[in-house]
Amino acid sequence: MIGNKCKEVDFITSVNNYLETTRQPDDAHRLSVQFRGEVNAKIPRSIILSKVRSLAFSGHYGCVPSLVECRLLRVLILDIWADRSDASVDISGISRLLLLRYVKIACNISVKFPEKIGKLEHLETLEVDAKAATVPSDIASLPGLLHLSLPSASVIAMRSLRTLGYIDLSKNLEEDVEKLMELENLEDLHLTCSEAHKADILEQKMGAQGRS
């Protein structure tokens, strides 16, 4: 019922698989792509990606559409899976999507980010759940970033942050953990420990967190 109502008022365009024959509007602003188990599926050519403002994609890494074409994109949600552990997905093109506000990525393979994303001055949320992810070198310069979640992240001293995860105590020195004191607006903090350490070392680092 919800899907039919969305189609009726042209709220969202949904693409289920590459065999779908129903005509899709060429001016879709909110696009939901669900390719499930397909490995060669493509978005219908009738959909003009340059007009899409919001994209939610779920499917095989080989089916991810060209992100650089979505130059008006504000919201990007990618749920990507792969059938080979040595695969990776390149999303470095997001550095050119200057209107991005929200990015959420879940993936069972490594994700390649752009070296720099400093031009994304409207970006407020960046959440990444992947096996490995490189952190853009200028991420701390993003003026509007409020919510940041990266796997095994280092402490990033950004006063604007309200959410920060996941800080790996195994990979951050005590003085790095103490930098959390600078995050005056922080409301939600997630800590992890990927390696076994002596109890006194972890206690010392947790003590630094307690002081912050």
Separation of termini? 50 Å
Mean pLDDT: 82
Which descriptor suits the 3D outline?
Answer: globular
- Which value, in Å, is the CA radius of gyration? 20 Å
Number of strands: 11
Largest sheet: 9 strands, parallel
Summarize the structure in words:
With 212 residues, the protein is of the alpha/beta class. The chain has a single domain (2-211), classed as Leucine-rich repeat, LRR (right-handed beta-alpha superhelix) (Alpha-Beta Horseshoe). The chain is built from 3 helices and 11 strands; from the N terminus they run αββββββββββαβα. It has helices at 2-8, 174-177, 199-211; strands spanning 13-15, 30-34, 54-60, 75-81, 88-90, 102-107, 110-112, 125-129, 147-153, 163-168, 188-192. The strands form 2 sheets. The protein has a 9-stranded parallel β-sheet, covered by helices on one side. β10, α2 (174-177) and β11 (188-192) form a beta-alpha-beta unit. It is globular and about 55 Å long.
